[in-house]
Design brief:
14 helices; single chain; 8 strands; 319 residues; 2 domains; 2-enoyl-CoA Hydratase, Chain A, domain 1
Length: 319
């Protein structure tokens, strides 16, 4: 387990417990199990206390934890008969965006998501989950297909933002994001989004302009990263803690503002400590949200989705 900066006191306690167990194995029959168990209890309580009072910046760190389950993990665990669909039929296939036909609880759906990768090789291949224009155009193609065949669309959001490289800008990054957002608003099928890690800027909105938006308890969703915000406002990226608080990017803040509809509770210590539990919780949330939408007429789904975003500004001002 990789410990985050604010988890260092916890790391010390758990490390001492492991040392005692190691000494017991080589200590000529000396029983240290009681001492180790006492440290385990202390570590468990420390973990609970830490995660009860996370700051916005600490939640950013948790949301970015490399051991959190990623899009591919959710697809493999929650969906059956997944058939990947590749390419935007114009330029290339963007490996930062994965998507295809699948079944969720035996219901045919289209699933689309950002994939960050889980080791150095896959992270480079997936461009750390930062999509290029062809990734958004692939998503548009898949949403069009889902609309044509009346399939609900489920999107899994986990990106620091759209890729800001020169080539991406030359190929129309802003236009691709705008058209993907427009397509989200236009399709006449249920659209459900879950922020499973980072929801960064337009790169996230392009997949998450949905009928129902859920966030994992320790995920974040914002117009810009705290570091980027701090660099612009204070000319100092080290002020990311203040920026994180000002951005109101936590699931709890965003639910109060009416930006998201539901918070999916994570295991104690975050999804990275119990990935299977976290994935199951997301599966239950998707099932519940789909149940609220299936059976609605296409025009009602489009109207309700558009109204949701029109109302969002007034709720934000009231908050």
């Amino acid at each position: 387990m990789q410990y985050l900066e604010f988890e260092k006191p916890l790391a010390d306690i758990e490390g001492k417990a492991e040392e005692l167990r190691a000494m017991a194995k080589t200590g000529g029959g000396v029983d240290m199990s009681k001492e180790a168990e006492a440290l385990d209890r202390k570590a468990d309580q420390a973990l609970r206390d830490l995660y009860k009072t996370l700051t916005a910046w600490q939640k950013c760190q948790v949301a970015r934890h490399p051991d959190r389950p990623h899009c591919q993990d959710y697809i493999e665990a929650l969906f059956t008969e997944y058939t990947a669909l590749a390419g935007d039929r114009a330029f290339a296939d963007d490996h930062a965006v994965m998507g295809g036909l699948a079944r969720f609880n035996d219901q045919p759906v289209m699933v689309i998501g950002h994939e960050k990768g889980n080791d150095t090789k896959s992270r480079i291949q997936r461009n750390f989950g930062m999509a290029r224009p062809e990734g958004y155009r692939k998503a548009i193609r898949l949403m069009d297909m889902a609309d044509r065949f009346r399939l609900p669309v489920i999107t899994l959001i986990d990106t620091a933002g759209a890729y800001p490289g020169k080539g991406a800008e030359e190929r129309g990054q802003a236009e691709a994001i705008a058209r993907s957002t427009e397509k989200c608003l236009a399709i006449g099928v249920p659209l459900i989004s879950v922020v499973i890690g980072e929801g960064g800027s337009g790169g996230a909105v392009a997949f998450a302009t949905a009928n129902r938006v859920a966030m994992l308890e320790h995920s974040v969703y914002s117009v810009i990263s705290p570091e980027g915000c701090a660099s612009i406002l204070w000319k100092d990226a080290e002020k990311m803690r203040e920026a994180a608080e000002a951005l109101r990017l936590t699931a709890q803040d965003l639910q109060k503002l009416g930006i998201i509809d539901r918070i999916v509770k994570e295991p104690v210590g975050g999804a990275q400590r119990a990935p299977k539990e976290a994935i199951e919780a997301v599966g239950k949330a998707i099932e519940a949200m789909l149940g609220e939408l299936v059976g609605k007429k296409p025009e009602a789904l489009v109207r309700d989705r558009r109204q949701k975003y029109i109302d969002m500004g007034s709720k934000g001002l009231a908050a």
